[in-house]
Recover the amino acids of this structure.
């Protein structure tokens, strides 16, 4: 900064001698006050001329600035401002005012006033803001013109320099101000880079030589872009997947590519699709040129093209700089194609095929289990969406007969998208029994979302075969023929029937076998009539064998014996026309009805009767004595007796004939399962264990007492959906063939149906099979419900019996034993010395050496008692103080006694025992509640009672309607929806009674605690500390009830479920169980105080650290129990049923899968199980280490026993825990494990209590 020294501090006069013209120069600073701007011209000329005194002065011209009042020259304006006067002058010019003054003598004065400058003006920029555009990459020293600042002061005080303000160091490293007298330039001293910084804000001020600062010039420097960068995509590859059913109408983009341009301003990027292998009209995508959003414009089809690969180009507006990125769009398959049913029938059975029907022909003689073809299921969708295909028979008409074929999926699949089924016959076909035509509807279904299905009809025509041999109506025929008969007379007629369906197959030809009688008898081959050809000469009877031969198949035939008897009409005797009459009838016909009629020759009137009849009351046949008609009078049952044989005789004759009655079967018996008990099958659904994807479930069998076809049995599922996963064969084998989406446990109901004709019969009962996952046995209802129900019933019975015994004992105690003990106690004499020695451990010397009361027994007692009261502040014996008062009354000695607070009444040994037993009994009831609660949890019974009420809960439903209403209420809650949708009412009763037992036990525990507590309190048996503890125990019991219902509520409402699982909150479960253990510990500890007698510790001393260690074991046990509650609440015992590792890991990888991390400690089943394992092993190791370390220490008899029991119990508890894990949490073992934790805690409490009494060192 320059410093200027002002030399003209006062006005200066320059005057010279003059003759005619006098020059007067006067210098003065601007801003001089107005009063000093006056000049006396006469005085100014005093030294210049001698005539000055006579001059009269006047201005030659009027002046703006001056006026003359002779001889005074006066400055007219108010102030002298150099810049105003010389505003048009250059700054370097002198600023002055000059005027001519005349006198009357023509003397001229030239007056010049030089105005000297002062720094009274600040520099200023005429504008405050300037915007500049400077392109990047310009050369160094490039200059840009800036507006200059102005200062009206003279050169002495005007602008000195310019500088930046409010800038960072980077500005001064890039820009420099360059100043000339008339210009200001911005000079680049470093190359600009728009991509680094595209804008600079400069703030410039001007400073004059006097130090004044100008206003701020704001210069906005915009760095222009050179466009040297090409667009750059944010990803090297864009890859996405969309479903094939993505609607082209949907305007939302499937993918958005994004490119960035590192240039500053040329950032407008245009996107285009290039290099497609498909014509534009077939390419299904387009791209938004400005946003890069790729959208679908045509319908996609995974089966046509599953992956599209193309490229997208990003370019600037100039089109010169560009880049390309590859795009991959995978079309994910959706289940939009229905499965196709392709039938491949063997040529020998194929008949006709069209789009809907497939018609085949089967011969009725086809063997059982014959493969007639296969069905190939194909689905154009991928296996990733339809998973697998299944085929089932939806219907088989007519329904009156069993379906003749079945589907067998035993063939290995060779492709992911196809499944092959074999078509096999399931039974013998018989055209004659109604097997004519079957219409079978096959349904193929995939397992995609949504599941699609297709149907096709298989029509089976049963071809009749010539497989039935002709059957004679009788095996033996007997005909009578008179000797007087003419040749050609009709002897009789035999008849055979062929049951074949086709008329051509029913034609029968008759033929005689005995050729030597052809000359006697002739048979008509078409109708079986026998004619007499020639009369026999040597015999009166002869036999002929007749054959009935199938005309189409001579290998099918039947034969009968024909006996011809010739008789003399003159000597005629009555004889039966046949020796044997055969009749066929079906069972269970409406009685009475005619069976048939017997015939005799025409030799006279006859009377018929049954020759032998054991009991006419039960014999089902009678014969009409006159007509020979045989009637059935009692219902016939083929299963009881299938054949009857009895003789018929003619009255007053020895001639007899045999009657044979064949009872034909009728479909009158239902199939009956050999074993109707529920079956519980445990299987593993993991693919690793089943390479062929089929699991044998069970084998069932039902018996039908009917014969032949009526007795053939097939098996079916009542729920058609079960065919999607299971297949049941005709031999009763149940196979699990589809593991996908199978949710176990599953409840299978199977019924049996015979092949009876004309109507098939079904079994009246169904066979129930529960299929459960072996790795989740606790979820299976299995017979554990039945066992647990029986166990629960037994427990309830025991509770009731014990409760009744308790009431009876209390009554007996109050009525008899209590008064007896009181009377006996009152008879005891009081011995002061013995009481003092026993209760206060006072030596006899104190008693004997009390001189002040020597010779007075009562005074000695008082002295001893007062001494002990003074030395033992814990002594509170109301009885002894009473004796002290009695001693004072009887004694003449006066002993000053300090006032003593009235103590509580003493507790006798009996009172202590009663209180101790009461506390122990309540602790036992609490333990029972814990065990029953564990069973309730393990049997999934806790959510069966969906409401809570103090009184109404004590009355379970009694009628069927009430039970059904309760069951319907239960169906409205999540547990039924998720787990028990197939539960029956009987099963619901079982879980309901389990929860009911738990609630009733809890209330019984409260009553067992409350009533005795009120009695003891009323009788004053509690001291102040005990009263506080009793209140705490009562409060904990009440809190337990509230926590129990609060826990149950968490599993009843969907909004309180954790992860949507129908189960109680593990947090509330842990609080419920933890409170129970705290209550149990407090009750048991206080019962020890009242029931335990002091032990003798003559030579026993233990360090104080041992007691602290036991308390540490107690704490560790309780923490492990609470961790176990979280295991139970999350069913975490089922996730890793292995030990010592969890699967293949020491620390499972899923330990920290939840976020935030602390949720894993309480909500992650894997982490919860791991924590319980670690805590359990730590507790076991700590207890065993303590037991081993304490073997060398004398703990006392009771403490040592407690220690040994604790060590044994911790080994048993650890074994139970490991077994529960390995055997997938069986109910019995899990309940024992929970009860074991109570036992372990009990032994730890007993050890801590006894160690507390042992003297410490």
């Amino acid at each position: 900064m320059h410093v200027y020294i002002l030399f003209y501090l006062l006005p200066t006069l320059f005057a010279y001698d003059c003759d005619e013209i006098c020059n007067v120069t006067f210098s003065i600073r601007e801003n001089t006050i107005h009063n000093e701007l006056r000049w006396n011209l006469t005085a100014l000329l005093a030294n210049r001329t001698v005539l000055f005194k006579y001059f009269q002065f006047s201005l030659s011209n009027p002046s703006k600035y001056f006026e003359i009042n002779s001889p005074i020259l006066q400055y007219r304006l108010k102030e002298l401002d150099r810049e105003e006067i010389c505003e048009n002058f250059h700054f370097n010019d002198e600023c002055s005012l000059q005027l001519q003054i005349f006198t009357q003598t023509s003397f001229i004065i030239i007056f010049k006033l030089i105005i000297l400058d002062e720094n009274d003006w600040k520099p200023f920029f005429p504008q405050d803001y300037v915007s500049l555009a400077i392109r990047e990459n310009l050369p160094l020293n490039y200059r840009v013109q800036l507006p200059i600042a102005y200062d009206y002061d003279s050169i002495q005080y005007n602008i000195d320099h310019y500088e930046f303000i409010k800038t960072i160091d980077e500005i001064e490293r890039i820009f420099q101000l360059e100043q000339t007298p008339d210009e200001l330039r911005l000079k680049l001293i470093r190359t600009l880079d728009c991509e680094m910084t595209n804008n600079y804000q400069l703030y410039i001020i001007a400073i004059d030589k006097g130090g004044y600062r100008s206003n701020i010039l704001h210069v906005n420097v915009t760095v222009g872009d050179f466009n040297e960068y090409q667009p750059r995509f944010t990803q090297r590859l864009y890859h996405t997947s969309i479903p094939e059913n993505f609607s082209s109408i949907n305007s939302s983009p499937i993918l958005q590519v994004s490119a960035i341009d590192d240039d500053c301003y040329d950032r407008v990027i245009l996107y285009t699709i290039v290099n497609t292998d498909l014509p534009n009209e077939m390419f299904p995508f387009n791209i938004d040129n400005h946003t890069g959003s790729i959208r679908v414009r045509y319908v996609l089809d995974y089966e046509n093209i599953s992956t599209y690969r193309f490229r997208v180009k990003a370019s600037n507006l100039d089109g010169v700089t560009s880049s390309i990125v590859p795009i991959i769009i995978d079309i994910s398959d959706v289940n939009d194609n229905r499965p196709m049913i392709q039938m491949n029938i063997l040529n020998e059975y194929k008949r006709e095929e069209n789009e809907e029907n497939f018609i085949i022909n089967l011969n009725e003689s086809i063997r059982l289990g014959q493969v007639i073809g296969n069905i190939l299921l194909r689905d154009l969708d991928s296996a990733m969406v339809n998973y697998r295909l299944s085929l089932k028979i939806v219907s088989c008409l007519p329904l009156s007969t069993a379906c003749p074929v079945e589907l067998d999926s035993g063939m290995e699949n060779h492709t992911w998208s196809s499944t092959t089924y074999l078509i096999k016959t399931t039974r013998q076909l018989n055209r004659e029994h109604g097997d004519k035509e079957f219409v079978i509807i096959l349904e193929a279904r995939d397992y995609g979302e949504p599941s699609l299905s297709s149907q096709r009809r298989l029509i089976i025509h049963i071809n009749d075969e010539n497989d039935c041999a002709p059957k004679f109506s009788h095996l033996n025929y007997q005909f009578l023929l008179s000797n007087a008969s003419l040749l050609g007379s009709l002897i009789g007629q035999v008849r055979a029937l062929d049951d074949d369906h086709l008329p051509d197959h029913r034609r029968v030809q008759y033929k005689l076998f005995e050729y030597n009688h052809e000359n006697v008898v002739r048979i008509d081959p078409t109708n079986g009539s026998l004619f007499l050809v020639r009369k026999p000469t040597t015999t009166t009877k002869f036999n002929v064998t007749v054959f009935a031969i199938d005309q189409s198949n001579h290998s099918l035939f039947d034969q009968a014996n024909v006996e011809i008897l010739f008789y003399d009409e003159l000597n005629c005797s009555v004889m039966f026309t046949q020796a044997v009459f055969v009749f066929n009838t079906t069972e269970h016909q409406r009685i009475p009805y005619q069976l048939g009629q017997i015939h005799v020759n025409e030799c006279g009137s006859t009377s018929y009767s049954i020759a032998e009849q054991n009991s006419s009351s039960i014999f089902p046949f009678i014969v009409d004595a006159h007509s020979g008609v045989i009637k059935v009078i009692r219902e016939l049952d083929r299963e009881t007796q299938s054949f009857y044989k009895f003789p018929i005789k003619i009255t007053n004759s020895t001639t007899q004939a045999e009657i044979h009655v064949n009872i034909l079967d009728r479909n009158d018996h239902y199939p009956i399962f050999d074993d109707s008990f529920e079956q519980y099958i445990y299987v593993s659904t993991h693919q690793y264990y089943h390479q062929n994807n089929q699991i044998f479930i069970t084998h069932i069998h039902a018996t039908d007492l009917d014969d032949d076809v009526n007795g053939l049995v097939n098996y079916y599922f009542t729920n058609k959906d079960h065919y999607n996963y299971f297949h049941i064969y005709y031999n009763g084998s149940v196979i699990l063939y589809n593991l996908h989406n199978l949710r176990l446990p599953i409840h299978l109901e199977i019924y049996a149906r015979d092949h009876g004709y004309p109507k098939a019969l079904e079994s009246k009962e169904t066979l129930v099979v529960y299929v459960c996952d072996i790795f989740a046995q606790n979820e299976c209802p299995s017979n554990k419900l039945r066992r647990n129900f029986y166990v629960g019933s037994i427990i309830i019975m025991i509770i009731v019996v014990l409760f009744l015994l308790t009431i009876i004992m209390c009554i007996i105690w109050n009525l008899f034993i209590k008064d007896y003990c009181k009377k006996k106690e009152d008879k005891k004499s009081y011995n002061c010395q013995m009481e003092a020695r026993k209760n206060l451990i006072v030596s006899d010397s104190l008693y004997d050496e009390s001189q002040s009361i020597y010779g007075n027994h009562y005074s000695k007692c008082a002295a001893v008692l007062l001494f002990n009261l003074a030395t033992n502040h814990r002594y509170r014996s109301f009885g002894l103080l009473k004796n002290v008062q009695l001693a004072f009354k009887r004694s003449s000695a006066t002993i000053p006694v300090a006032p003593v607070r009235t103590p509580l009444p003493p507790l006798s040994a009996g009172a202590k025992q009663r209180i101790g037993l009461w506390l122990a009994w309540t602790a036992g009831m609490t333990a029972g509640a814990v065990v029953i609660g564990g069973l309730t949890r393990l049997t999934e019974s806790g959510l069966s009672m969906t409401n809570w009420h103090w009184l109404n809960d004590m009355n379970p439903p009694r009628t069927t309607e009430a039970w059904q209403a309760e069951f319907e209420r239960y169906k409205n809650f999540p547990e039924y929806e998720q787990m028990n949708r197939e539960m029956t009412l009987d099963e619901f009763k079982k879980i309901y009674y389990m929860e009911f037992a738990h609630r009733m036990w809890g209330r019984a525990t409260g009553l067992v605690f409350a009533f005795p507590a009120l009695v003891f309190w009323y009788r004053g048996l509690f001291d102040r500390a005990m009263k506080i503890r009793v209140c705490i125990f009562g409060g904990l019991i009440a809190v337990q009830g509230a926590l129990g219902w609060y826990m149950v509520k968490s599993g009843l409402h969907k909004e309180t479920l954790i992860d949507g699982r129908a189960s109680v909150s593990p947090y509330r479960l842990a609080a419920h169980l933890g409170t129970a253990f705290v209550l149990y510990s407090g009750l048991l500890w206080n019962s020890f105080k009242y029931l335990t007698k002091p032990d003798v510790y003559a030579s026993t001393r233990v360090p104080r650290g041992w007691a602290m260690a036991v308390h540490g074991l107690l704490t560790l046990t309780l923490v492990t129990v609470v961790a176990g509650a979280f295991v139970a609440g999350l069913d975490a015992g089922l996730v890793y049923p292995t030990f010592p590792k969890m699967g293949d890991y020491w620390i499972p990888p899923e330990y920290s899968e939840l976020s935030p991390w602390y949720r894993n400690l309480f909500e992650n089943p894997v982490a919860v199980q791991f924590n319980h394992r670690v805590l359990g092993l730590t507790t076991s190791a700590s207890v065993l280490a303590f037991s081993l370390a304490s073997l060398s220490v004398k703990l006392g008899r009771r403490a040592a026993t407690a220690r040994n029991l604790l060590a044994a119990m911790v080994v048993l508890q650890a074994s139970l825990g490991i077994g529960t894990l390995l055997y997938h949490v069986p109910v019995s073992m899990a309940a024992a494990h929970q009860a074991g934790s109570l036992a372990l805690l009990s032994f730890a409490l007993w050890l801590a209590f006894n160690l507390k009494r042992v003297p410490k060192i």
Notes: The chain has a mean pLDDT of 76. Residues 784-826 form the longest helix (43 residues).
